C-alpha cells in the first residue's frame, strides 16, 4: 500500500484523465476466523502493460498492521479463509494455466501453491466447515476449439437466449457443483444435467448445501431462480425451498442451520429488471417464507446474519445513499446502523461479535475498508492517501428538481473547486445507465473529472432509477424516453433557475442507458449544444436478436411483428433524427453484446447524412464495460475535448 504524505495547498492540482493510472481499489474483504485480520484484494494498474492487476493483502482489524500476500498481480480473486484459519485460498491464472485454478496460501508465509487442475471455469467456491474440502461451482469447459489449429470451429446455436456480454455466444455449457478433497485431490460431481447451480454454500454442520438454480421448463425464457437444498454427497436429490416466479438468490444459512436467508425480487415477471431485491427467510427444512424488508420499499443486498441469529444485517439503497441496516427476524423491526452521504460497496461480518467490515466511499475519497462496530464507522485502510495528496477536488452537493408533471427528482451536483458563487457555468448532464440504478454519494471519478475541467456536472436519478421504490422504477415500463427525458430536462431547468448553469452552454452525456437517454433527450430538446452518447442505441427494433435482452423485449414491448408501432415509438431518436441539431460524439465497444456497436453506428450514420457534426469512436475488443486503462483515459479526454469545442 502507498504511504501517507501531504502537499502544500498551493502545489495541488485538479483531477485529470491520466489519474486513472494511479487509482487503486480494495474489494472482497473477508474476516479471519479469529476475527483479528481482514483479507482483501487490491486492484491497481500496470501502466507498462496497459492492464489491471490485483494482489492479496491482509490488514489487522484495528488497521495498525498490514501485509501484502501476493506480488505477481495475476488477478487473484475469490479469496477465502479456511475455517480453521490456517490457509487462504484464491483463484488465479498463473504460468501454464489455461483457466483459473485454486491456489492455497499458508497464512504463516510462503508462496501460494496450486491446488487444482480443472478444465472449466471456477465461478465460485466455499470451504467446508471442517476445512477438509472445497465446494466448487465450475462451468463446463469449452471443447469447441480445435487443439490442432488456431481456427475456431463454427458456433452451433439452438438456444433461445444465445448471447451474453463478456460470455459471447452461448452454447450448452452449464455450471455445476463439485466437491474437491484437499487431502486426496479428488473431484466429486454433486450435480449434473441441463441446469446451472450458483451461489452454493455449506450448512454450518457441513452436512447440507444450499444453492440457487433455474429449474423451470424453459430456463432461457425467464429469470426464475429458486433456492434448493441437498445433502453433501454425490447423487443426493435437491429439495426446492422457494416457489416465487421471479428471482430467489444468494442463500445464506443461519448460525443454527435452521433457516436460510436469501434475496427475492419484487417482480415475478419472466425478466425482473423493473424491480428490487428484498430480504427473505425460509426454514431450511421447508415451509413458509417471510419477507423481511417488503415494507421498506427499497432495494437491499449483501445479507448477513448476526452472531446470535436474531437479526439480518444488509445494505440498502435509499435516495442517493447506501445505508447499513439491521432487521429483527422476529418482528421485522428495522434499525439503521450507518447512514449519511456515503456509499458502501460490500459488507462482511465479524465471526465472533456483531461487527462488520465494509468497503466504503464518499464524494471526496475513493473506496477504503472501514469497520462498523458499536455504532461507529472507522476507516482502517489508507489506500487512497497518495492518490488524493496532489489533488484539489470539485465540490459536491445534492439537489432536488421538479419535473413538469410535478414529480420530485433527486440529483447530485459537481462544481469546480474554484467556482465563483453566483457565476453561471457550462453544464454537463451526465446520465447514469441501468436504467435501474442510482447516482449516490460516492467518489464518482467520471463526474469529478468533468467538473475538474471547469464544468458544472449533474447526475439525475430520473424515473426508472432505484432508491425511490418500485413504483418509481416501473414508471418507465414500456414507455422509454418519456418520463426519463422529462426528469432530465427538469433538472436542467432547475440548475438554470438557481443560477448554476448557463442555459446557452449545456451538454449531455452517458453510457449504456445513459447513452440511450442522451439520444432520447437531444431528439426532444434542441437546447443542448453538445452530446456524447456512449454504448447507446436508438433504432431499438434493430436490436431484437442482436443483444441479450430478448426475454425483456417480448414481455415489455411484445414481439416486433406483433406490435411494430410500439417498437417504432421507442425508436423515435432514429426516426426523428432530422430534428437533432446537437453535435454528438458516439462511442461504443467493439465486442459489446449488451448494447451492440450497431446502436452507435446507426446514429452516427444518420447525423453524418444530415450534416450534423458527429464522430464515432469504437474501442477494440472491449465489452460493455471498458477495462483497458488507456481506453478509459482516452474516453475521458475525448469527452472533455468535445465539450470544450462546443461549450467554451
TrEMBL record:
Gene3D superfamilies cross-referenced by the UniProt entry: alpha/beta hydrolase (3.40.50.1820), TolB, C-terminal domain (2.120.10.30)
Protein known as: Peptidase S9 family protein
InterPro entries tied to this protein: 6-blade_b-propeller_TolB-like, AB_hydrolase_fold, Peptidase_S9_cat, WD40
GO MF term set: serine-type endopeptidase activity
UniProt keyword terms in alphabetical order: Hydrolase, Protease, Serine protease
Family matches, as PANTHER family: DIPEPTIDYL PEPTIDASE FAMILY MEMBER 6, SERINE PEPTIDASE S9 FAMILY MEMBER
Pfam families (alphabetical): PD40 (PF07676), Peptidase_S9 (PF00326)
Source species, domain of life: Bacteria
GO BP annotations, alphabetical order: proteolysis
Residues in Peptidase S9 prolyl oligopeptidase catalytic domain copies: 443-647
